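Researcher: First entry.
Model:
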Amino acid sequence: MGWFFWFFFVSGFCSVLCELIWLRLAMAQFGVTTALTSIVLSVFMAGLGLGSWLAGALVRRCGDHIKFPPLRLYGLLELMIGLSALVVPAELVWGHRLLESLADRAAVSSVAYYVIAGLWLGATMIPFCACMGGTIPVAMFAIRKRQQGDQRSFSFLYLANVLGAVLGSFLPLLLIEPYGFHHTLLIGAALNALIAVSAFVVSLVSRTAPPRTSNSSSSSASPATAGAIESNRGVLILLFTTGLATMGMELIWIRLFTPYIGPVVYSFGMILVAYLLATYTGSQIYRYWSRTRKHESRLTWISLSLLAVLPLLTADVRVPIHLVARVFIGVMPFAGMIGFLTPMLVDRWSGGDPDRAGRAYAVNVVGCIVGPLVCGFLLLPLVGERWSVLLLALPWFAMAFTGRGASVQKFSRAAAYAILLAALGVLLASKDFETQFPVRRVLRDSTATVIAEGEGMDRRLLVNGMGMTKLNPITKMMAHLTLSSLDHTPHDVLIICFGMGTTFRSALTWDVSTTAVELVPSVPKLFSYYHADADEVTQSPLAHVVIDDGRRFLERMPAKYDAILVDPPPPVQTAGSSLLYSQEFYAVAKQRLVPGGILQQWLPEADASTQAAAAKAIKNSFAYVRVFPGIQGWGWHFLASDRPIPKRTAAELVERMPARSASDMIEWGPAASAEDQLSLILSHESSSDAVIALSPATSTLVDDRPINEFFLLRTPFDQLMAME
C-alpha cells in the first residue's frame, strides 16, 4: 500500500502542474477571457469525470478477463499522461493556426470562435484528463487484487492525491520562473514516466509474492466481500452538491481576497494551497475517524452553512488580520470539512468497488463543472459575493429543518439552530469591500467586480478591489505623444485596455476612428463616472468599444491601424498580463500596423528584471524604438515602429496636433501650455538599451517565460541589492 500512496502523491502533483500550465498555454493561444478559462477548466474536469466513469465500467465488465497485473494498466495510464507534455502544447498551437486560417477566410463570430476553440480543446485535453481520472478506479482494482475487502481504498488514494496536489499548487510556480512552461511540463512528464516504470517493476515483484487472500483474483466487489454499501441515491446528490458548492466558492474566494493578496499568480496559489492543504487535513481526519465510526452527525453538514460564510468575515476590511490569515482562516474550515465529507461519501457509496467509486467520483466532478459556471455567469453578476455565498450554502441551512435520511444520528436541534443563527449573524454583520468608499458605483459581471469611487480628481477605478488607474495626464500622453510622432496623418487608432476611457477620449480629439478593446464588460459602462462628456464621446460615429481580449482581437481582426496604444492592467506582475508584453504579442501587433505605424507600450514601475525583459521583447520586435519617461516621473512610454520615428521638437509636435487635442492634453496639467507639456517628456528621453542595462543578463520576455509574473525566486536578491 505504501507504493500506491507514493504513486498517487506524485500523480497528484503532476495533475495540478498540468492543469496550471495547460490553462496558461491555452490563454496564450485562444485569449485571456472568462469564457475561455471556463472552457479549459470544464474540459479538464469533464475529462477527469469521464475517465473515472469509463475506468470503473471497464473494471466491472472486463475485470475477470484481465490476466496481467492491474498495476501495469495503471502504469500505462501514467505513461499516457506523461506524453501530454509533448502533445498538448503542440495541439494548442495547431488549434490557434486553425482559427487564424478561418479568420483570414471569413469573419468568425465570437460564438463560433468559442465553439471551435472548445471542440479543439476538448479533443486535445480530454484523452489525457480521462487517463488521470481513470487512475483511481484502476488502482482500486489493483488494491482489490492484492488486499481483498478494503472498503476505504478510495479515501486512501484520494488522500495521497490531494497531498501531492498541495505540492503541485506552488512548486510548479517556482519551476516556471527558471525553466519556463514547456520545460516544467517535461519535468512533470518525467515524474509520470517514473511512476509508470515503478508500477511495472512493482507488478513484476508482486507476481512472486504469496497471495494476500484466497479470493485475490476477484475483479469486482460484491456485498459479501465489500461489506455494507450505501445505495441511497442521496449520497450521489450530496456528492454533486459538495462539488458544485466547493468550486463555486473558489470563484468567490478569489474576488473576496484579491483586494488583500493581489492579482498575481502567487496570490491565487495561496488560495489553492489553503484549499488543498485543508482538504488533505480533512481527508486525513476522516481516515482516522472511519476506523471506529460509520456515520457522521447531521450537525457536521449543518456546520457547512457557518463555514461557508466565514470568508465574508475574514474579508471584511474592518477585521485587522494579516492577509495570509484572512485567506487561511476564511478558506480552510470549509475546505477541510469538504475534504472530510467527499472521501467519506465515495467510500460509503463504493465500499471499495472500483466501478461504484468511478461513478461516484464522476458525479462529484460534474458538480465541480456546474459550480463555476453557475456562480461565475449567473450568481456573481446578478447578486454579488454575499448572496452568492448564501445561495450556495442553502442546502446546509435546509438540513437543519429536515430530519429524514439514512446514515444520520440524532442531533440537537437547538445546536443546529445555533449554527444557523451564527451563520446569519456573520452574513448581517460583515461588510463588503466596497462599503468603505462613501462615494461609489459598483458593477459586477462574469469577469470581475468593478468599483468606481471618489470625487473630482481623486476618482479611481478598481477591478476586484485592485486600483487600476486614476485621472492622470499620463493616459492622455499615450494618445497625443504617439499620434503627433507619426510620419503621416493618422486615420485609425486601436486602444488595448479601456480603463477610465481617458486615452480613448483623447484619441477621438484627433478626429480619427478609435477602437478600444476591454476585457471586463463593466469597465466601459463606468465611462460617464469619470468624464462628463462620456455620452457625447461614445455617440460619435468614430468611437468603437469592443469587449474582448486585446491580443485575441488583434489576431482575429484583419484591420490595420496607424497607432496601437497598449496599457495593460497594473501591477506589471498581474497574472496573464505577460501576454500583452511578450515578444509573441508584438509579432501580432506588427502585422496590424500600417507602414510607419507606431505601437505605444506603457510600462509602469517594476523590478529591474521585468523592465529589462520587456524592453528586450520590444527591441527584438521593432527596428526603431524610442523611450520616454512618464510625465509624472515614473513609468515608461515605449514608441516602436518598423520605420524611423521622426525626432521633432515640442513646437513641431504641437503644430501637428488639432487645436482640440492640444487643449485636451493640458486639461489636467502639469504644464500650462501644450509645448511645455511635451517638453517635459522630450527633455528626458531615454532608450531601450538604458532600460535593458538595468538587468542585462535577464532573458527576453516571451510567452513561455513570463518573467514579470513569476518573480519569487529573484525577489530576495533584488531586495538585497536595494539594501546595498
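Researcher: Second entry.
Model:
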Amino acid sequence: MPAPTSANPLIVQGDHTLLVEVASPRYAELRDRLVGFAELVKSPEHIHTYRITPLSIWNACAAGVPAEHIVEALHEFAKYPVPEHVVTQVRDFASRYGRLRLQRDGDGLLLAAADPALAEEVSRQPPVAPFLGERCSLLAFRVSPADRGRLKQALVRIGYPAEDLAGYTEGDALPLTLRETTRQGAPFALRHYQQEAARAFHAGGSARGGSGVIVLPCGAGKTIVGLGCMGAVQASTLILTTGATASRQWRDELLDKTSLHEDQIGEYSSVAKDIRPVTIATYNILTWRPAKRAEFAHLGLFDQRNWGLIIYDEVHLLPAPVFQVTATLQARRRLGLTATLVREDGREDDVFALIGPKKADVPWKVLEGQGWIAKATCTEVRLPLPAALQMPYAVSDARQKFRVASENPAKTAVVERILQRHPDEPTLIIGMYVDQVNEIASRLGVPSLTGTTAQRQRDRLFAEFKAGRIPVLAVSKVANFAVDLPDAAVAIQISGTFGSRQEEAQRLGRILRPKAGRNQAHFYTLVSRDTVEQEFALRRQLFLCEQGYSYAIRDGEEFTG
C-alpha cells in the first residue's frame, strides 16, 4: 500500500468519516473515487466530510467495485495512516453482500446462506423469520415468491443484503430496435456511457441483471438509457413518470428513436386508460384514491399486462404506495433512473432492496469534461431582508420564517439585473411559492407556468421556450423533474424547498444539456442573508458539492448597486 504523505488530501477517521481538503491538487481525483463508495455529509469551503456506510459499500459492490479497490483508494490518498479497524469494517460490509442468495427452486424460491452459522443467525432474526418457510438443508430455506421483496427489505435492515439470482419472468415479447437515424432525420446512437449503463443493467439477460438503478446527471440522457434497456429486454414495458409533461416526452423519444409505432404506446392517466405493449403512467395516477382511507384505485395497472420491464423514472421520488406494490413485483425486471439516490425521506435502503442496487453512476464532472453536459457556474446571491420585514420575520414560527425570507421582494431587482447580464441566453426563473412566481413574472412581463396551468398551456409554453420564441420563463416546482428544455442556459432560483438536495440537483439539471459554442450554463440561487433560508440553502447545495460544483458567494449589492 502507498505510504501516507502530508501532501495527500484525505484523513480517514475512526468513526468511518472521511475528511477531504478541497485545496489539494488531488481533490478532484479523490472526489471522483469517493462518489462510488461514500456519502457526502457536509461541504463547507475548505474541508468536506464523507461517511462510509453499509449501504454505500453494498452499492459499490453491486456496481462491481471490489472491497480491495476501496481500501486501496483510502491508502492512496491518506494523509495519515488509515485506522485498521476502518479497513476491517469496509471488508466486513463488502463481505456481507452476496453471502445470502435468493435462487429459483422449481415454482418457488430458496434463500441460501454461505455457511450454516449465517443461516442459523438469519433465521432467528424477528424481521426475517416470518418470511422463511421450511428449512430444507443446513444452508437453505424455502421462500414464497410473494414474499421476495419483503424478505429482501428485512435482510437489508439486519445488515445482510441478499443477492437476488431468482431471475425474472420474460413478459410479453415486444420486438423493437433503436434507430440509427431519428424520425427527425438526425443521426442517433447511444453514447459510450449510456451503452455501459444499459449493459450493466441487462447483464446479458442473466439473473445477475434485470434490476437496478442508473444514476446519471440531468441532461446526460437517462431516457436514452431506458430505451437501450428496452431494446435489450425486448418485452412489454410499463414506464412510470413524474407527470404528464414527462410522459409526453417519453412518448416522443420512443417514437423518434425506436421502431415502435403510435398504436404500440398507450397512456394511462386521468383522461385515458389506454393499456398497450408500452404503457406510460404517472405516479400521481397510481397513488390517486377517492378518499384518504380508500383503496388505491389504479395500482392494479401493474397486473394489467404481462410486463417484462418496469421503468421507474426519477426513482428517488417513488411514493410509498408504489414501494408497497413493488415489493410484490420482484419477478419483473425493474429499472430505476435518477440523477441522485438521495431521498429526503431516508428510504434509500428500500430503493436498494426493491428496485435494485446501483448499477452505474458516472460523476457529473467527468461528463462535463467530456462535453456531454454543459459546464456550469453556481452563484449564491445573498441580500438583506427589507426593514419592513425584519419584525414580521422575527416573530414568525420556523416555517413562516422560511417563507418570509424566501419571498423577499428585494429579489425581483436582483433577477432583473441577472437577466441584463445574460440578455441572449434562454433563462428559467424557478420558485417554490406560486404567488411569488406569478408576481415576479408579472413584474418582468414574462409568462409563468405553475401547478394550476392547464396541461395544454404547459405544453405550449414549453414548446415556445424550446423554439426560442419565449426567452424567459418563470416556473414553479412543476418544472423540477423530467422536463426537457435543452436550450435553457441560465436558471435563477428565487426560492427552494427547505433543504432538499434532490431538488437543487434537478434544478441545476434543467440547464446542463450540452450547448453549442462555449457549452456554458449559469445557476443562480437567491437567499436572504442571516435567515433560515441561508441555512437551508447550504443543505440544498450538499449533493452538488459532492459532484464537484462550488458556489461563489456574492452580495446582492453587486447586482443592484
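Model: Note on the second entry: The chain has a mean pLDDT of 88.
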